[in-house]
Amino acid sequence: MTTILDAQNLSKTYGEVAAVDHVSISVKEGALFGLLGPNGSGKTTMIKMLTGQVRPTGGSATVLGLDVTKDPVGVRDRVGIIPEQETPPSFLTSMEYLRFVGAVRKIPDIEEKADYWFDFLEFRDKRNVLCKDLSRGTRQKLMFAQAFIHEPALALIDEPLINFDPIMQDVVKEYLAGYVKNGRTLFLSTHILEVAEEICSEFAILHKGRLLHTGPVAELTGRGEHLPQFFLSLVRKGTHV
Questions:
Q1: Less crowded by CB within 10 Å, the N or C end of the chain?
Q2: In which band, very low, low, confident or very high, does the pLDDT at 195 lie, cut at 50, 70 and 90?
Q3: What are the structural domains, with CATH classification, of the chain?
Q4: What is the pLDDT of residues 103-118, one digit of tens each?
C-alpha cells in the first residue's frame, strides 16, 4: 500500500524548547491516523510542519510525494486542512468565503458544492452571515466544509470535533469513516481519546514533543486494552513502548 505521508526525525525548536523532537511517522493510503497527546505535546506544530505552514528545524517529511520544505505551497494546494483555531475571514460571509476557496482551488461548480455542505452540516441559514457573527460551532462547520469541498486525497485536521454538539459530532464521525472507506486518507489530531479509539485505524502518541508509541488501534483492542487507559499509562510514565 502506498505511503501517503512520511516524516523522518522531524523536529521543531523555539530557542531551547523542542516543540517536536525527532518524530518519525509513516501513514499509508486509506488510513485514518490519529495523532494523540495532551495539550502542548506538539500535535499542532506537527500538523503545521506537515502542511508547510511552519518550517522544520530538522528532519524531513513528504506529503503526497511532495517535500514539505521544498514545496509547501504544493502541499497545501493538494491537501485539506482544518486548523486548531477556526479562522474564516471576518469580513466575508460564509458563502463568500467558500467562493474564495473555490477560486483559489479552481473548483468547478462551487455554488453547487457549497450548497451541499450548507445542507449536510445544517447551516444553510448562515449562508449570508458574516463570519465574524458566526458562533464557534458554525465557524467550525465552515472550516470543515472548506477542507473537504475539493475532495482531497489527504486531509490533516486538528481537533475537528471540539466545537460540535453531540449530534453534529456523530454526523462528522460518520463522514470521516466514509471518507477513508472511499480510499482517501485522514490525519487527525485530537486529545479526545474515546473518539480516536472509535474511528482511527492507527495512532501515535506525542508527549512533550517526543513520540512515545505508534501502531494500529486493533493491536490494542486485540489484547483487551483500551486506548484511553493505554494513553494515560504511557504519558504518565513518559517512556516509549
A1: N
A2: confident
A3: 3-79+154-237 (3.40.50.300), 88-151 (no CATH)
A4: 999 999 999 999 999 9
